[in-house]
Amino acid sequence: MDSTTTQKRSGRPKSEEKRDAIRRAAAQLFLDNGLHRSSMDAVAAEAGVSKQTVYSHFRSKEELFAAVIAGKVEEYFLDATVCHPLGDLRTQLIELGRRFVDLIYDEEAVSMWRTVIAESVAHPEIADTFFEQGPRRVFAVLRELMAECGRRGLLQIDDPEEAAGFLVSLLRGHPHMEVLCNLSPPPPVEWRARHVPLMIDRFLELYRLSR
């Protein structure tokens, strides 16, 4: 039996499984202890792999942290694949909005926000990495979608960055700051189901070509 057949039968390659295990272990340690109090030795022990294996996948703790943040964004499929309008635009925007809202209220994502805020005063590079792999990355996807809607004449958008910022503000909603400050729990599914279509409709009212 050749290696290709073995790989197909066994599922994902072992290297990918180990990479995911390392990333999950690191995420938990970063949340529990903070980035600077979490060592690569601790990550290796938590993941059940050798330190050498950790470094074979991630050259530094900073690179591992970036992968943790990027991985959380990828869980919600907020990547370049959503930059192209397909079918009914309202339906697509509602689905995109649902993913965005679920991401920003994801328990692990909220905890990571709090960790970054706490550590960024002494270590501003942590905030920069977090924003580069998280919020800025998501915003770039939304900005490109707005630009594409404008190019295709689906929406009247003169400034894609402004439109993306407005959409983010609408979708985030007033509870987000309270959640980040641990003053209230993330809003329930029922709230999100009402909130997202309502905010998308408000957005479309402003940017429809007929305005």
Structural commentary:
- The chain has 211 residues and is mainly α.
- 73% of the residues lie in helices and 0% in strands.
- It has two domains: 12-59, Orthogonal Bundle (Arc Repressor Mutant, subunit A), CATH 1.10.10.60; 66-207, Tetracycline Repressor, domain 2.
- The protein has helices at residues 3-10, 14-33, 40-47, 51-57, 61-75, 89-104, 107-120, 124-133, 135-151, 160-172, 175-180, 189-207.
- It is elongated.
- The relative contact order is 0.10.
Features:
211 residues; mainly alpha; Arc Repressor Mutant, subunit A
Structure summary:
The radius of gyration is 20 Å and the shape is elongated.
Number of E strands? 0
Question: Per DSSP, what share of the residues sits in E-state strands of 2 or more residues?
Answer: under 5%
CATH architecture of the largest domain: Orthogonal Bundle
Termini Cα gap: 64 Å
The general outline is elongated
**Could you spell the SSE succession in H and E letters?**
HHHHHHHHHHHH
CATH superfamily of the largest domain: Tetracycline Repressor, domain 2
> What can be said about the biggest beta sheet?
none
CATH topology annotation of the largest domain: Tetracycline Repressor, domain 2
Q: How many separate helices?
A: 12
